[in-house]
Amino acid sequence: MEFIKKLQSLSEHVKLAIIFTVVLMVGLGMGFFWIQSTVHSISSISQSFKSADLTNLEAPTDVVEPTLNVNWKNYENNRLGFSMDLPNITGIENDKVTKLEVFDDGKSNLIYIAPSQSADQMSDLKNDTPNSFEILDKLGINSWQRGAWQIVFSKIDNDAELLKFFTNNFYGDSKSGSQCKIESKKESTQPGVFDIKIKGLGFEGGDCFLGYSYILKYYPQEHRAVFWGTGQAYYFRIKDDMFDPRMIESFKFTRITDWKTYKNEEYGFEFKYPKDWYTKDDPAYDRVYITNTLNETNKENSRPDFQGVWISHSKEESSLQKENDLKIGKSDSNAIFSSVSVSTIENNGVIMDMYEYKTAGGPVLEVFWTDASGQRYYATNATEGGNQKNMVYSLKKILSTFKFTN
């Protein structure tokens, strides 16, 4: 009791000091025992690892992402007069082939491009339509919501008709887009065909809001135009592999239904060429020349718009060594002023390896392919006349019709 009375008589500061000291001593004591216990636990774990047999443990297996194999094929529609590269992809879903199909009813001024069978799997549409085209057609202007491109063609005679063609298809009616204007025309990779850019007015700028991306091309010489919406993101992609850019870049207007046909009975092949062009066999070089001027195969006495290409079955020109040199940027016939672009195209069952590069006078295309017997073939364009860009385009167009007949 006497001790308690003495404590009560102490000042408040002294009482607080005593309480703090007691708490500190208790805390230090508990901390000491916790540290001792932890050291003991760590020591036990260490001993366990030392005695454990780790020789039979297997390393974790890495998850292997499937490798995509893309086989590009050139699709051509003679009815509507266009061509485009389309991908067939393997390496996903247990090597199941995924491909894009063209849905064409054979009579409309439009087609759809969509993943195979996707049109038949749209559960929110009734099953009373007779074919996939009609299912896609019900979706109309909003087709991109289902992963399809709706590509529309039209005959166009002037800029006013071109602008109206755009607004009708972009907005889906004839009233919207009254304030839209053509901002620019830029010649595309296809000579004479222009990529059209429309000037939008933004959210608050009036009746020309451009809410998604589009393709609008105009071919004045043939009075033709094409439009399709590409949405706000890539339509056709698998993870980081996007296929839209090449598909768009490869689009070409074509009109070859009235072309003439060259046939080679000895080697069993044929191809089409423009009706106002000429062919000439040259047995000395194993070549077939295709030119837009009669009896002219080079720049001598040629007209200003001269174009000339040739197809060869010469062993020297079509050699594997010549092709391998191109793969590393070397050419035995031209001085190369750029990197060599390499691509593979399948036309009519013929797989062609294409090598394109720039020379001092313009682009050059060299192409190699093989028939079933192993006979190699080669094609290229002339480097005279200043029209190499047009020649490369013409050669690609001619080769798109090449096929073996045996």
Description:
The protein has 406 residues and is of the alpha+beta class. The protein folds into 3 domains: 1-31, no CATH class; 70-253, no CATH class; 260-404, Protein Transport Mog1p, Chain A (3-Layer(aba) Sandwich), CATH 3.40.1000. It has helices at residues 2-8, 12-51, 132-139, 159-171, 244-250, 320-327, 388-399, and strands spanning 69-77, 82-92, 96-103, 110-115, 149-155, 181-187, 194-199, 213-219, 224-231, 237-238, 241-242, 252-253, 260-264, 269-273, 278-282, 287-291, 308-312, 341-347, 350-359, 362-370, 376-381, 403-404. Strands 1, 2, 3, 4, 5, 6, 7, 8, 9 and 12 form a 10-stranded antiparallel β-sheet that branches. A 7-stranded antiparallel β-sheet has the order 15-16-17-21-20-19-18, sandwiched between helices. It is elongated and about 135 Å long. 24% of the residues are buried. The model is unreliable at 93-97, 122-130 and 141-145 (pLDDT under 50).
List the helices and strands and how they pair.
Layout (H helix, E strand, L loop, with lengths): L1 H7 L3 H40 L17 E9 L4 E11 L3 E8 L6 E6 L16 H8 L9 E7 L3 H13 L9 E7 L6 E6 L13 E7 L4 E8 L5 E2 L2 E2 L1 H7 L1 E2 L6 E5 L4 E5 L4 E5 L4 E5 L16 E5 L7 H8 L13 E7 L2 E10 L2 E9 L5 E6 L6 H12 L3 E2 L2
Antiparallel strand pairs: 1-2, 2-3, 2-12, 3-4, 4-5, 5-9, 6-7, 7-8, 8-9, 10-11, 13-14, 14-22, 15-16, 16-17, 17-21, 18-19, 19-20, 20-21
